[in-house]
Design a protein that fits this description.
Rossmann fold; 14 helices; alpha/beta; globular; seven-stranded parallel β-sheet; single chain
Amino acid sequence: MTVRRYCFLTTFYPPFNFGGDGIGVQRLARALARRGNQVTVIHDMDAYASLHTGPLPQSGGADPFGVQVVTLSSRLPIVSALLTQQFGRPVVNGARLHRLVDGRFDVVTFHNISLIGGPGLLAYGEGAARLYVAHEHWLVCPTHVLWRHRRERCDGRECIRCQLEYRRPPQLWRYTGLLERHLDQVDAFIAMSEFSRAKHREFGFAREMEVLPYFMPDPDSASASIDESIPHERPYFLFVGRLERIKGLQEVIPLFTTYSDADLLVAGEGEYGAELRRLAAGNPRVRFVGRVPANRLAAYYRHAIAVVVPSVCFETFGNILVEAFSYATPVIARRVGPFPELVQQSNGGLLFDTRDELMDAMRSLQSSPDLRAQMGRAGFEAYIAHWSESAVVPRYLDIVDRVLEQRARVAH
């Protein structure tokens, strides 16, 4: 296997991240480093600091797998992030990024670049193969999530009005052709699912996209320190994720006023958490357990009847589904976005549109341990085949190889 020098450019990276995209970037970086590659990750703490409330998390120190992590920061994080958001280029850190990136790497992969540099960042990495990974729908949506006016799935552009409703200043660079001009710098674009690739095309993104999903660690790489004790005395369904309106949990909680055979455990925190707790007030069958450490979260997954994934927006992938499959736990997911794609590919769960269908799915899995076990096994087998590190990383390396071969042919 060829050893190469990789650079990852991303806005968010653990512990300075909000969702699954940062974890996905970290997993890929570490997987490449374990294979002997030199991997450098450059991320922007200004963006995280400008959006985060409360004390900043402590850095984890040196990466245990040898990934070099470079953290960009300034004395005025909000100003730095706003300038990038408005001008579409890394205003504060531009010169430093050129010094860090240009001419030093074989492969530069752009991940979530919205606040580390915007489209102007795509010109960085001179001499390297350049890949873009669409963790969100930022290429076609200023708010990243195609959730129009904070209330509905987007099926047509009303971008300026929508940004104002998100309390974000409109990005005027989106109307100048800046993005389209810089897309020519990129050798390959990667979508996280077939659904996301189709959604990019629907909203006018004309470039070809590869499909490469997120992955979970291989089974034999699991930590021996996992706490497997049963986390809850009653049968339960599990929700894992950030507590945001777009995650749809507000449509699940009311069901547990009448569904008395099991509880709902909610693992996660977020800006919508207070409202969800008010909605569940007085209901002993809904329990918020907050952020659960990774070594403890495994037990929550393994002992759940199923993991409920009720997101109402267009996700680019379904990390929670694959995480559930990795613990042989079935899922009950809304029939929207990439979730049908993952459930059909795995046979690892049930889909729903309405609250009645969700209730029926819950009853089916709780009343039939055999069905639950069958779907759990199918999900686990699909995770091994499609969404484990051993399945996904070679596909990423194949894309890199093809891009480098194509660049070599053009050069000669």
